Amino acid sequence: MSTEIKNYGDAQFSDMRAQVQQANDEIDLRELFSVIWQGKWLIIAITAVFAIGSVVFAIMQPNIYKSEALLAPASEEQGGGLSALASQFGGLASMAGINLGSGGGVDKTKMAIEVMKSRQFASDFIKKHNLLPDLMAAEKWNMADNGIVYDNELYDVESKKWVREVKAPFKPEPSMQEAFKEFSKVVSVNSAKDTGMVTVSVEHLSPAVAQQWVNWLVEDINKVMKERDVAEAIRSSDFLNKQIAQTNVADIRAILYKLIEEQAKTIMFAEVRDEYVFKTIDPALVPEEKAKPKRALICVLGTMLGGMLAVMLVLIKYFVRRES
């Protein structure tokens, strides 16, 4: 009997403690809301400052236009003969530096994508088309004459000289390392895993410049990969011709002639097709609408950030006063 009374008393005490805790929680929440309400004008003021600042910041940001092209990997039409020889003559071909498509090498499309992302290709591309001013000194785009306005503190258009002030080891004219960092920010090359399609895109202040760069990128990567394969095929043919001159075994000479024939096919295939690695499915267009900045989103996020900081400031001030 006494045990039941004790358990009943413990249960009542637990219920009372839970009710007291709930009441304290309600008091704390009411206190917090009261503090926030008392500091409402400070919260409104800080939030308004952030809102106005975010609007000004969003308006000051220049429009960025994005142009992109959809590409498909070119078919390996000359690959059939090489693949047929791979199992029989792979060892001899590897001595000559010839890839017969046995599946162990790097896919040509993947290699082309990595070449486009490389420092060497970017540097050659920038120098070839004289893109340094448009890449590093462009300030805004003039829609009236479709021209680019350059930052006078960086680049003098009349004398075509760089006038920016930088500390050593940097020079007034940006180095290719600096240009590559900026180039990597505006140029994107992506491959879809499911379809294998490749998208090349460029972001720039000028929509016309963005479209032109995409076209140049596609043309140049096809040309670079073509020149690489042709040079490799020529070197391999020279090696095989030397081997033919050094052997009198008829079977080996027949094999070597067959390998030379395949290298000749590679060279012929490269010479007759401009779209060597990538075929253009959807060409780049001059964009009519900006890609960024998202001004509305900037304003909303700026206002929300101001509101949260204002509330935190009011609460911090209250708790500091209460403890002191």
TrEMBL record:
The Gene Ontology terms for molecular function here are: protein tyrosine kinase activity
Alphabetized, the UniProt keywords read:
Cell membrane, Membrane, Transmembrane, Transmembrane helix
Q: What is this protein called?
A: Lipopolysaccharide biosynthesis protein
Give start and end of each Polysaccharide chain length determinant N-terminal domain: 25-128
The protein's topology relative to the membrane is: Multi-pass membrane protein
Annotated GO CC locations? plasma membrane
**Which parts pass through the membrane?**
41-60, 296-320
* Protein localization: Cell membrane
**Top-level lineage group:** Bacteria
Q: Where is the Tyrosine-protein kinase G-rich domain?
A: 279-318
Has UniProt tagged this entry with the keyword Hydrolase? Answer: no
**What Pfam families does its record include?**
GNVR, Wzz
Protein's UniProt keywords contain Membrane: yes
